[in-house]
């Protein structure tokens, strides 16, 4: 259990922060930027929840919890040392990816196939979900970049990839099951 008696610690006053394994790194380190972006995404999900109907709100609540799991995973490097640790760190699991896939399939079954790219927008909820989608894509790009230089849980990367797809399909659901999607018209303003 986490106990936060004091919010400020002053330990980051010189531009460093602690990772889950206790190592101190620069606050601008790629690993910190990666899990910081998932935290940013979590905040945008919280904003989207303000507009979401009950069923989607429940799914977004699960996603917010998953994003904390993802942050815990990403803030603890050296996956190859997990078995040696007294308390194994929390890691994203394949089941979290599978759940997103099932939810995407269920939502997508309600939609007509796309015949055009769509512009982010439509309803307020759809617009917010598109912001979530693009921040999820940025988090995924950062995680993939991090994986080129450090160990990263492949399930964390898969989760971010599916999550951006989830937000895309959810945005279509929020646009009256795709009927109010804003279609891209190539070259419309030439």
TrEMBL record:
Its EC number is 2.5.1.17. Belongs to the Cob(I)alamin adenosyltransferase family. One of its GO terms (biological process) is cobalamin biosynthetic process. It comes from the Bacteria. InterPro entries: CblAdoTrfase-like, CblAdoTrfase-like_sf, PduO-typ. This is Corrinoid adenosyltransferase. It catalyses: 2 cob(II)yrinate a,c diamide + reduced [electron-transfer flavoprotein] + 2 ATP = 2 adenosylcob(III)yrinate a,c-diamide + 2 triphosphate + oxidized [electron-transfer flavoprotein] + 3 H(+); 2 cob(II)alamin + reduced [electron-transfer flavoprotein] + 2 ATP = 2 adenosylcob(III)alamin + 2 triphosphate + oxidized [electron-transfer flavoprotein] + 3 H(+). It is an enzyme of class 2 (transferase). The lineage of its organism: Bacteria, Pseudomonadati, Pseudomonadota, Alphaproteobacteria, Rhodobacterales. Keywords: ATP-binding, Cobalamin biosynthesis, Cytoplasm, Nucleotide-binding, Transferase. Pathway: Cofactor biosynthesis; adenosylcobalamin biosynthesis; adenosylcobalamin from cob(II)yrinate a,c-diamide: step 2/7. GO terms for cellular component: cytoplasm. Pfam families: Cob_adeno_trans (PF01923). One of its GO terms (molecular function) is corrinoid adenosyltransferase activity. PANTHER family: CORRINOID ADENOSYLTRANSFERASE, CORRINOID ADENOSYLTRANSFERASE MMAB. It is found in: Cytoplasm. Residues 7-173 form the Cobalamin adenosyltransferase-like domain.
